[in-house]
Design a protein that fits this description.
This protein is mainly beta. The chain has one domain: Neuraminidase (6 Propeller). Helices cover about 5% and strands about 45% of the residues. The strands form six sheets. The protein has a five-stranded mixed beta sheet, with no helix packed on it. The two termini are about 15 Å apart.
Length: about 375
C-alpha cells in the first residue's frame, strides 16, 4: 500500500520521566469533552521490561480539558497497592461513569517462590528472561543474570473492572470478572456500547496470549456474563483485540497476531454472541485502535515496528477491504521498535489526535501525541 503523510502534524510530549519507563497508553473522550488517558509506568531498569516481566508496573491516569494541549499530573489508579498490572483500558459512559479494566498478576519474591510447594506452577526468573530474549522486539536481557535482573516469580492473576462515578477522579467500586474456562482476561482497550444497551469487553487469554474472547454486561459494568469465544486458530497467537460497533449493526474486532506480525480480524452479526473465523488483513503492525470517522469510514491506527519505525493508520469505507486504501504515516522516523499502542481521538475543529508511546532522542520512553488532518 502507498504511504501518504498526514497533513499539518503537531507533535507533543504528553508525559516524560527520565527515571521511568512510561508506555502503552489508552485514551477516551468523556461526555463533558475532557480526555482521559491511562498508561503504564515503572522505574527505569538496566534493560526494558514490559508488564509480564516486572511486578512494579502501575497504571496512571492523566486528564486534558483542552484537547491534548495540556495535561494534569499523572495519578496512580485505582489507588496505591495496585501493582503488577498489565496495560489498562478505559470505558467512558454517560453520567460520568468510567470503567477501568486491569489484569493483575500474582507475584512472589524469589525467596518466597523457592519455598512454595507448587513452585513448578510459577514462572521463575530464567523463564521470564527466556521470554524476554525470544521476544524479537525488545533488547533482551543484555547478558544479565536472570535472578539479579528479575528476582521475583509470577503466577496467574485476575481480571478486574474498577468503577468511577466522577469521571475517573476516584474508583470506589471493584468488580472481579470470572473468565473461566479461560485462565486470563487482559486487554488494553475498553468496552464498547452495543445498540441494545449491553457493554461488550474484549479480552485475551493471558499468559497464553493465543485466544480472544468477550464478556458482556447489562448493568453498566457492575457484573459480567460468561466468556464467549471470539478468535482461536491453530498456530496463531491472538491477543490485544480492538472492537468497534459498526453503523450496519455488525461488530468488528481487530486482533494482534504474534506470528505473522499483522492484524487479523473477526466480525459478529449477533451482538458478539458468535464470531466469524479469524482472517488476516494486509496491515503490517499492531496493536490496533478503531475509530468511526464523521464520513462513516473506519480509521485503524497502529504501530509499525519495522523500518521506518512509525505510527500509521488506514482509513477504509469497508471493514473487509483495508488493502484498497493508502497507508497514512502519522509520525515516522522514530528511533526503534519500542513504540505503538495508539489511540486516535477526534478534535472539535475536525482534526484528529493520536496518543502513543515511543522513545525520544536520549532513549527515554514516553507518552507522545500528534494532532493532524487527514489527507484530502
Amino acid at each position: 500500500m502507498a504511504l501518504v503523510p498526514v497533513r499539518d502534524p503537531e507533535h507533543r510530549i504528553v508525559w516524560r520521566d527520565p527515571f521511568a519507563y512510561a508506555a502503552h497508553p489508552h485514551a477516551v473522550t468523556l461526555p463533558d469533552g475532557a480526555w482521559l488517558l491511562v498508561f503504564n509506568q515503572v522505574p527505569r531498569r538496566p534493560v526494558i521490561l514490559h508488564p509480564p516481566q516486572d511486578p512494579f508496573f502501575s497504571n496512571f491516569i492523566m486528564r486534558s480539558r483542552d484537547q491534548g494541549q495540556t495535561w494534569s499530573a499523572p495519578e496512580i489508579v485505582p489507588d496505591f497497592g495496585w501493582q503488577g498490572v498489565e496495560c489498562a483500558g478505559l470505558t467512558a459512559l454517560e453520567g460520568g461513569r468510567v470503567l477501568l479494566h486491569q489484569w493483575r498478576f500474582r507475584w512472589f519474591s524469589l525467596s518466597a517462590a523457592r519455598l512454595r510447594a507448587d513452585r513448578t506452577a510459577l514462572t521463575m526468573p530464567a523463564e521470564l528472561a527466556r521470554g524476554l530474549d525470544l521476544s524479537g522486539e525488545l533488547e533482551g536481557t543484555g547478558g544479565l543474570e536472570p535472578e539479579r535482573l528479575m528476582p521475583w516469580a509470577r503466577d496467574g492473576g485476575s481480571a478486574f473492572v474498577h468503577i468511577s462515578e466522577d469521571g475517573g477522579a476516584t474508583f470506589a467500586t471493584t468488580v472481579e470478572i470470572d473468565t473461566t474456562p479461560f485462565v486470563g482476561g487482559y486487554n488494553m482497550r475498553g468496552a464498547i456500547a452495543l445498540p441494545d444497551g449491553r457493554l461488550m469487553l474484549p479480552l485475551c487469554d493471558i499468559p497464553a496470549y493465543e485466544r480472544v474472547f468477550v464478556v458482556h454486561s447489562s448493568d453498566r459494568g457492575e457484573s459480567w456474563g460468561p466468556p464467549v469465544p471470539a478468535a482461536a486458530q491453530l498456530g496463531r497467537l491472538f491477543e490485544e483485540p480492538a472492537a468497534l460497533a459498526l453503523p450496519d449493526g455488525r461488530i468488528l474486532m481487530l486482533l494482534r497476531e504474534n506470528r505473522s506480525r499483522q492484524l487479523w480480524q473477526v466480525l459478529s452479526t449477533d451482538g458478539g454472541r458468535s464470531w466469524s473465523e479469524p482472517a488476516p488483513t494486509p496491515i503490517a503492525g499492531y496493536p490496533a485502535h478503531l475509530l468511526l470517522l464523521p464520513d462513516q469510514r473506519l480509521l485503524c491506527t497502529y504501530g509499525h515496528r519495522q523500518p521506518d519505525f512509525s505510527i500509521r493508520a488506514v482509513a477504509s469505507g469497508d471493514a473487509l477491504n483495508w488493502g484498497l486504501e493508502p497507508t497514512l504515516v502519522i509520525r515516522g522516523a522514530l528511533p526503534n521498535q519500542d513504540l505503538g499502542y495508539p489511540t486516535t481521538l477526534p478534535c472539535p475543529d475536525g482534526r484528529l489526535t493520536t496518543i502513543y508511546y515511543a522513545q525520544d532522542s536520549d532513549g527515554t520512553t514516553c507518552i507522545l501525541s500528534t494532532t493532524f488532518r487527514l489527507p484530502e
